Prior knowledge:
The chain is an alpha/beta fold. It has helices spanning 20-28, 42-46, 78-94, 103-111, 147-152, 208-219, and strands at 4-8, 10-12, 15-17, 32-36, 51-54, 98-101, 116-117, 138-142, 157-159, 166-167, 174-179, 184-189, 193-196. The mean pLDDT is 96. The protein has one domain: 3-Layer(aba) Sandwich (Rossmann fold), CATH 3.40.50.
Amino acid sequence: MRPIIGISCGRAGEHYQASAKVVEALWEQGGLPFIIPAAADPEEYMEYLQGLIIPGGGDLDPAYYDQDPHRGLGVVEPERDRLEMGLIKGAIERGMPILGICRGCQLLNVAAGGDLIQDLGDGYHQHRQQAPRAHPSHWIKIASGSLLAKLLGPGPLRVNSCHHQGIGRLGSLTPAAWSNDGLIEAIEGEGFTLGVQWHPEWLPESMGLFRGLIQAAKGWKA
Length: 222
């Protein structure tokens, strides 16, 4: 049986918009995608899920980490912020397997008590690549013995990069990868709690993240 994995999505005009690449990657690796729209009550969905993906998207309202908006802050979707922070809280309380992708990684850190760099400036490499998303852009170093290393190997690994924000103060999670400029590129916690700053759905060499989530979801019980 395919485990049911929730995938949150935002709203674009009159339509809810999920990442097709995330849905396809999850399906191809053996999961059953369950799309959760931004207007939903997160608590009502938790009983149906065996795992959760928080995918990429716009910027989180900095009020969630007690900051005012930086002038470089991008588009904020309050409804989606509410949904995804609620889903993350529900998943962590239940020990449900969770994978955060790009924005999802950042929300995971904030939910764990950390904060974000609202706009990466001087001192950092190019993290919003101009190349196609399927093209790996920069190297990361992977922490030895981490869950990430078990899923993808010891590294180093080249990944894509499509973000202008990053993890600032780390919450109650463990860093699992860094770019060469020192930016945290992955975080993890108890069980299968994993956030990555890149977009693995575009990279065949990162499909182990989806396989790992699915295997963890198969063995998870509320």
